Amino acid sequence: MINFSMNFRRDASQPEKLDFILAGAQKAGTTALHYFLEKHPNIALSDDQELHFFDNENRFAQTVDYAELHRHFRVTHRTRVSGECTPTYTYWKPALERIWNYNREIKLIILLRNPAERAFSHWNMQRERGFDPLDFLPALQAEPQRLAEAAPLQSRRFSYLDRGFYSEQLERVNRFFPKQQVLVLKYETFRDEQQKSLATVLEFLGVPPLRSVRFKERNKIAYERRMTRKEADYLAEIYRSEIEKIEQLLGWDCSDWRSSAGR
Length: 263
Known about the structure:
Largest sheet: 5 strands, parallel
Strand order of the largest sheet: 2-3-1-4-5
Strand content: 5-15%
Radius of gyration: 19 Å
């Protein structure tokens, strides 16, 4: 049981350290969860939703000034925890070690989505923004070359497939953080059972439940078309063994991930 009678923090304008990070994955419901957390009176979030502090290579090429991170937060006498949301952190290889060096007791919240549908959503976002002239299947086929061009860093824009290999990301998480500091949620469960999922998140963060909040899907893009069967079959073959790894790592039933693409 959580002791909700704990003392509030003393008055301060900025946190000494962040307590949690909503760390991934992109296009997996992080905007919706951020929206709900923002409604909580005991949670302080950053002034910008995605700070991209720990995946900034220029910043970490020199002595890091964490005051640059903390200035984005305002905590009050009601604040119990403070945190930020940058979904790229689980994917960006150096980010998790940097977070661990910053605060070894920090908590991580990670949402994972059907990797095929995540890839399609990611491509749609890039297409809507005018960043990718290629259709979906050609973009997937061009990804190895695009990733090679971004090396030794990772591609932020064109990593449609690469971001869906969650097992490598989770193994990196487990390398630095004990299980009690990590909460991994399935996007589809969060989408369908928002109230229950939010209660799980708030309990994990050690804050009281929200008494009233309007639940709805956030940041939903109206796609011009659905994923085709050819595209779905292409992705299903790529992610077949990866989905099995996720089931083993997390003890999940991901049969819905195998069957939903292209519906």
